[in-house]
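User: Hi! Is it possible to get a structure for several chains at once, not just one? Here's what I have:
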Amino acid sequence: MSGQTSKWREEQILVICPGSQTTMAQLGCGELTPPVHRFPTRMFKDDESDDWRPYRTYKRKKAVSTPSVSNGASNATTTATAGATANGAAAKDEDEWEYVEDTDSVEGAVYPIRAGRIANMDAFLAFLDHVHGILTTTYHNTPIMLMASPQWTRPDCEAIARYIFEKTRTPALCLINSGIATQYGLKWPNMTVVDVGFEKVDVTCIYESQVVSHLDVGSYPGPERDVSGGEVFTRKLASLLKAKGFDYEMAEQLKKNPICEVLPYAPDTPELMELPADTGDGSKIVAPIADIDDGLNIDGKDVEDEGVLDVANIVVSGQTREFLAKKEKEKAERAKAGRKAKEREGNEAAAARTARLPNSKRPWNVFHYEELVTEEVPVAAPVPAPAPAPAPASIPAIAPTPAGIENSTTDVTMGDASGATTGTAPEAATATTAPIEGSAIDVAKPEPSADQQQASVGSEAVKPEEAKAEAPPAPAAPETAQLTEKQTKRVRRDIEIGIERFLFAERAEIDRIVTAIYRAVQGIENMYMRPYCWENIVFVGNGTRIRGLKDNIMQTLQARHLVSPSSATMFTSELPSNLGTPSGTGSQTPTGSFTGAPHQLPTTSSVNPLLQAATTASLGIPGGPAAVAAAAAAAANANAPGSNAGDASSAPSHHFHSQTPTTIKLAQLPTYLSEWTKNGFEEAMFLGAQVAARLAFCIHNLDVQGLESQRLMSLTRIDYNEHGPKAIRSHSMLG
Amino acid sequence: MAQQTLSSAMPPTDIYGGDEVSALVLDPGYCQTRAGFAGEEMPKQVIPSFYGHIDGRDIFGDEVILPRANFEVRNYMNRDSVVEDWDGATKIWEHLLCKRLQPERPTPPSKNGLNIGDGDGDGDVSMEDASGGGAENSVGDLEKPLAENPVLMTEAPWNSAKAREKAIEICMESWGCPAFWLSRTPVLAAFAAGKATALVVDVGGANTSVTAIHDGTVLKRSIQRSPIGGLWLSNQIRSMWETSDPRVDLVPTFMVENKKPVEAGAPAEARLRNFPFPIAPSFRAFEEERVLTEFKESVVEVWRGPGRFQPNEDYAKSQPGRVFEMPDGSNQMWREQRYRVSEGMWDDTVAFDQHEGRVAKSQTIPGLIKAALDGVDVDLRPNLVGNIVVTGSTSLLNGFNDRLNQELTNMYPGLKIKIHAAGLTSERRFGAWIGGSILASLGTFHQMWISRKEYDENGAGIVEKRCK
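Assistant: Yes, the chains can be modeled jointly so their relative placement is included. Here is the combined structure:
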């Protein structure tokens, strides 16, 4: 049995991209979709054994002996009995004790990855096992594509390889560097990947699919770690709004809201941004959030709401088809309504338009804060029909909520800004009696329309079926006959936020990222690679979803570091320093010295024409229209004086000794993957991991060279058996 | 993991334990410290030997060197590339070998993840409120961190006996290494070039050395060194900028908030940053060095001939110049000056005056090579001149090899001269490390190194006896 012949099917491949907060995973890489599953990257230590559990599990007295349960888990939002979740460990003391698995609690959580580093290997391996167990159905033949942070050390990677091959039946494992994964997702051969994560920022420079420079911020080992990344902004926001009673959760939610924005870099203003002036009363009139000039918010809402449709209810009541039809209709109606609303808006008085300033120009904006509040309330009536044991309640995305109108969720609206809460009661009523209808109404809701907002900020807040995807509210198991049960309410509050929503973007933090990018690219040893890396910068990581952050970083880079074409070379025939010298001996041409390079296999055929032109230009094909065009392209590209382009095109090699950067540009993102365009390329590494998985595991009919590089992309069980865990050093895509 | 519950159809034929751990290679220099695993092509970790000192704590790595209050920059090496500050050396090496190359060690059970509130022990302590003293014993109070990794360390050929003993002590006592070896940088650089006999010309950051290697050993009498390395060249540039008209101001990048394009030779129009705290001179000097490095990379060239620079200055003026834009946006064309700054490496009469005094003729590169060759047996000289290995970052100056070849041809007209200079930038920069990586991954290295047992029996003095 040879490694080359045993290829796998695309739907068999397990792709896992672990992050320090969320892990993206999915079985199959055929469709190149955004991640199907997102797991919180955390584990819980079992109190009694040394095992790890994916959810907080605790023991509590059975309700029989203590009618009014107060088990100390006051923050727990949902509970499920041991029986329902097939928790086998609860064998002893059956009569008195029960085990409760709380899928939402973070009490006692261990986060195995911290700022990219594996802080707790045991927990991480247990977590991998958990993900693997949930997603794989067949018990064998599922190769794993696992994304590794640049901070993972060699012993880490070996420990993971060893665990996977010894504890699972995985036939092959591919570890891929997160920067390389991003690069595979975006398909540029040279790029600088800036990955803004939860607590760290990674800058990885890639030249021809090789990592040529890397710097990280915020993942300093040891207690001096100075956190960077998205977390810094949340903390800052929380501290700025402390006076308003904001806690961390609220700040986190606000940060994700589009009213929170990093203003453009304004080089001449004292604060380096143009804060809207607080004109006093007029502009303070509440400006509805839906007005904001992009669809970000709306999109997000749509997705979320549709995501929480009570699938179980629909299926149970057997109305699936009707429901779907109805929903389609509603969708169409909604679209129509939206269009109408817009038209209406257009016809409205100009006065209204002035009030509709973009977020960045307003000193105030309203933030709709939603929180889940759990409280103990007495159960009104004995609960009938027990919930059908919710199958793996742990799959967050599609966890079914148990059927029944006795759903423990009610809705409360607390509008503190302005809000007629009158509409709440009847709607809530309908919601509880007819869940399906309720959810349909809900779906239709977040449509932005000018008239709706002012009147009923409050009533809009009603979410009949609010259950967050991760929080399926399960009624307490009936047999315990508790007198109280937990109720989760979604409470919505409107809070006016001033310029704090711009000030949270600390200059110091942005400067840190900017400096890291500058040093990483300028730290590339081979100078000729630097321009390519400057011209293809890409921001990934969900930290860059903060509105305006990317732009601000780019603007800062350009204002601070860009080298302009000098007037000293403009009118002379001198060689400017931003073009290559024609003096190469060729001895430094970097050919072939790299070994084991995971080459871009045939699927990556799209090459930047400009890049290609520039390369051919430096290779110096004399004469010919191609060379001329290439020279022109190179000149345009480098923004260099045209008179020197000829010199450059006659340069024989990569002998490049020029000051950089002369251009700083974002890499273009692919447009042909509509799902990813919608999802945003912040998670491009997941896309790239899928692409790489296909290359490593699925492509056959390769030539000899292709086969060899494919063999080195992943570690098969055969190679593992022969060489042991150390083979992962060479058989991987760790850059 | 003793118990092996393999469920696969094809279980591993062997149980793989910690026996596959390879040696670590540590190459400390004045400008950079490089560390990685033996057998790899490149060092995994390259950080400045300069480290930050803030409020009683030491922090390492390029990313932490940022303008902050009470922040100063230190270096644990001295200009001779010998460790001076052993406390700092231990910490920076530990940072590289134990924290960057090895996984984070599990926290003791007393404070493992079970009591996570916020920021307990493993992180989350922000710069401002972290109290000093936590870092010092972070490795010390755990089990020996490198109990499984042999360490190969490099040293300058003129390293003192005391420093060598100190190095083995740290490895054996503090880190619990099972084996240790100390090797001299020129030997390793020759090794990386595939030569056992060579004349190694190492043009590094803090100094330049010329050493003859014969059959893998340093010929002690040949060792020559002078300060004309990267820092010396930086000072030449500073002198040139100070004396040029108009004077060129060196404003390091961190001072600049943003800049506007200006005409060549025009004053800069940049907005400078204001810091509410004083900037330590050591930090500023470190940052200035970045600008100077960029200038060296993109402007400075070695005069390739014909002849030396001095009689050809007028011709040099007609050569294409290069523009350099300073971090504050001011820019100007550099013509013959860009050859002149580096000419002092070859011709002491052209060098700019520096505060540390002028170089002597014997300290130029031709002078060093002559002295080195004069120090060895006449019969060895042809073999050495035919195997010249050029290494060190400063040798990456444009035109360096051409000039070296020319100088040697003039000095030794009768001998066959062959210069070996790695084509890849990184190979030139990390020559000694790569040599160490090759050496430590050889099977024979296991018979060579000083084992823990030998150390226990003989004490630190063994390193003088063994690592000749």
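Chain B has three domains: 21-103+139-187+432-468, 194-227+363-421, 230-343. The mean pLDDT of chain B is 86.

User: Great, thank you!
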